[in-house]
Amino acid sequence: MPLVRIDALKADSERLEALGRAVHEALVETIGIPPDDRFQILTSHDGVSGTLRHDDYLGVHRDDGIVYVSITLRSGRTPDRKRMLYRRIAELAHAYAGTEPRNVFIVLTENESIDWSLGEGAAQYAAPPDPPAPPPTTPHPEPGTRMVPGT
């Protein structure tokens, strides 16, 4: 159950939709996300009231075609699965939206099942809560015994 946020500079609705489709398809193909499990926030920044900053860190020359993809998901995927996901997102973003692979910046944030509520105020993925503890009982004296305070 990933939550995906995609931020792009000066992207029209068609480009945002293509980027969203690229990321979703890559999630389905590489890590087995169900096809109907799509939760995305797609945002275009106009470069004036909102923008994206980037440099050439690690020798990757990025430009204003940069796309930031942030994926929050439950933990448990292997490093190889994550590498496959990154590669497939870059391939599909290029194929569907014309985004150069060098401009696809991806970050995964992992959490646990209890960290998700998919609506109705419930923790659908979490284990059921422990039953409440029974109230403490006070000992009752045997009939005919006398209780002495403080003993």
Description:
This protein is α/β, with parallel strands linked by helices. The model has no long low-confidence stretch (mean pLDDT 90). The radius of gyration is 26 Å and the shape is elongated. The relative contact order is 0.18. The termini are far apart. The protein has helices spanning 13-31, 79-97, and strands spanning 3-9, 40-45, 67-74, 104-111. Strands 2-1-3-4 form a four-stranded mixed beta sheet, with helices on one face.
In short:
With 151 residues, the chain is an alpha/beta fold. 25% of the residues lie in helices and 19% in strands.
Q: Report the uncertain regions.
A: none
Global shape: elongated
Secondary-structure element sequence?
EHEEHE
Task: Classify the secondary structure makeup into a structural class.
Answer: alpha/beta
Any key phrases for this structure?
4 strands, 151 residues, four-stranded mixed beta sheet, single chain, alpha/beta, 2 helices
What order do the helices and strands come in, and which of them pair?
Layout: E1 3-9, H1 13-31, E2 40-45, E3 67-74, H2 79-97, E4 104-111
Parallel strand pairs: 1-2, 3-4
Antiparallel strand pairs: 1-3
Helix pairs in contact: 1-2
